[in-house]
């Protein structure tokens, strides 16, 4: 039986086939999935904020920010023995859950998505697929035997990514 | 050597907030948490009274708690991360800032609307129209306003709430949006939590107040527990 490992906010986890990595209830956070089909090793980073600039290094949790979490996931997977050449990424999340009012707009989902895509570009990891933005929360499970992601939105049936 | 207070530095130079923000919320003492809980008690007492008047029903209040939660536990606060709820979100503005969130199970939201607008045919939660939306936002406005008003009187610091924003979605997805940028430094969030219960129809509303990390020092000072 494959194990399902949930990945909480500001967390990074890697696993190998046949296990499953999952995140339930993603709003403005962005989930970066990296997967190497040759070694069937993959990982998820649950990014909550775009940019770590301005945070004192001794207090910095690199798993939170797009600019630090994406390289950290890449590094962790490299140590685990993936073939860097066949590694690809998928990006999920970054919704704007609360509609803007006259007083404020949060806009954090969009910033997170842009920062994640930017960090992946810097590493040279190709983005195979993305499902980002919108106003609805998402849940996802990634099967590490195929790298396929099953995506759910409230009130809709699951679809593949 | 004596350093100026963090808030002073921020006001003068507008350096990045996070570098000088309150130390990790994990360092809060029991006395400080008790004082924050008492703050929650006073605020929610006032808000419960306002809601009772608004609905013309008896509203009971759970004992408020000041909780420090690790980030990965936040999404499961109200019946699991995928539980469908209505979230009403407001920003607290002024010298003390923060976030105010109501999480309402969707069936409770429908019953609240029916109680408020007798004779009006309330749509199913996914298909709320302008009437339902503005009515729920008004409930958020009244609850936040009365909560913060009580705190303003107590602390003598004016606090205002922004206009509310409302969404219906997975509880986890609504909460991550609200707490992510409060968690830039700490891996934990501080929340003052309570819930209101109407026993006749078993309606339950969850209320969370999250002081901004940068406001926490000032708040503790005002409460005399710094």
Which of globular, elongated, flat, extended, rod-shaped describes the shape of chain B?
globular
Global mean pLDDT of chain A: 93
The parts of chain A where pLDDT drops under 50 for at least 5 residues are: none
The CATH level-2 architecture of chain A is identified as: 2-Layer Sandwich
Q: Structurally, how many domains make up the residues of chain B? A: 1
Helix content of chain B: 40-55%
Q: Within the CATH hierarchy, at the fold level, what is the topology of chain B?
A: Chemotaxis protein chec
Query: What class would the helix/strand composition of chain B place it in?
Result: alpha+beta
Q: For this structure, what is the CATH homologous superfamily of chain B?
A: CheC-like
Q: Main β-sheet of chain B: number of strands, strand sense, barrel status?
A: 8 strands, antiparallel
Largest sheet of chain A: 5 strands, mixed
Structure characterization notes:
The complex is a heterodimer of chains A (161) and B (226). Chain A is 19% helix and 34% strand. Chain A is of the alpha+beta class and 161 residues long. Chain A has a single domain (4-160), classed as 60s Ribosomal Protein L30, Chain: A (2-Layer Sandwich). Chain A has a five-stranded mixed beta sheet, with no helix packed on it. Chain A has a five-stranded mixed beta sheet with strand order 2-5-4-6-7, covered by helices on one side. In chain A, strand 8 (138-143) and strand 9 form a beta hairpin. In chain A, helix 1 packs across helix 2. The two termini of chain B are 20 Å apart. With 226 residues, chain B is of the alpha+beta class. Mean pLDDT of chain B is 84; it is low at 1-22. Chain B contains eight helices and eight strands. Chain B has one domain: Chemotaxis protein chec (3-Layer(aba) Sandwich). In chain B, strands 1, 2, 3, 4, 5, 6, 7 and 8 form an eight-stranded antiparallel beta sheet that branches.
């Amino acid at each position: 039986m494959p194990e399902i490992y949930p990945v909480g906010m500001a967390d990074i986890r890697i696993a190998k086939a046949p296990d499953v990595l999952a995140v339930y209830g993603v709003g403005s956070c962005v989930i970066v999935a990296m997967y190497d089909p040759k070694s069937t090793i993959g990982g998820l980073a649950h990014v909550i904020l775009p940019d770590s600039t301005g945070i004192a290094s001794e207090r910095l949790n690199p798993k939170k920010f797009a600019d630090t979490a994406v390289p950290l996931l890449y590094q962790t997977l490299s140590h685990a023995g993936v073939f860097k050449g066949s590694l690809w990424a998928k990006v999920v999340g970054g919704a704007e859950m609360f509609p803007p009012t006259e007083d404020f707009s949060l806009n954090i989902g969009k910033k997170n998505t842009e920062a994640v895509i930017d960090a992946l570009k810097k590493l040279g990891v190709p983005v195979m697929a993305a499902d980002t933005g919108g106003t609805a929360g998402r849940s996802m499970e990634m099967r590490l035997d195929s790298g396929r992601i099953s995506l759910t939105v409230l009130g809709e049936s699951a679809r593949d990514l | 050597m004596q350093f100026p207070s963090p808030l002073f530095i921020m006001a003068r130079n507008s350096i990045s907030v996070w570098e000088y923000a309150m130390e990790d919320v994990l360092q809060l003492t029991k006395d400080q948490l008790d004082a924050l809980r008492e703050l929650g008690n006073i605020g929610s007492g006032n808000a419960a009274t306002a809601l009772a008047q608004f609905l013309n029903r008896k509203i009971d209040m759970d004992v408020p708690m000041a909780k420090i939660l690790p980030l990965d536990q936040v999404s499961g606060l109200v019946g699991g991360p995928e539980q469908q709820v209505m979230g009403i979100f407001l920003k607290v503005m002024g010298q003390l800032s923060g976030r105010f969130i109501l999480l309402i199970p969707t069936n409770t939201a429908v019953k609240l609307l029916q109680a408020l607008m007798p004779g009006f045919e309330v749509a199913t939660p996914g298909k709320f129209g302008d009437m339902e939306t503005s009515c729920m936002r008004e409930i958020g406005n009244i609850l936040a306003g009365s909560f913060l008003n009580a705190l303003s009187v107590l602390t003598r610091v004016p606090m205002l709430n922004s206009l509310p924003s409302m969404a219906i979605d997975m509880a986890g997805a609504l909460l991550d949006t609200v707490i992510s940028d409060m968690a830039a430094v700490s891996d934990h969030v501080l929340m003052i939590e309570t819930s209101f219960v109407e026993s006749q129809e078993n309606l339950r509303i969850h209320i969370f107040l999250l002081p901004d990390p940068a406001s926490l020092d000032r708040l503790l000072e005002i409460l005399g527990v710094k």
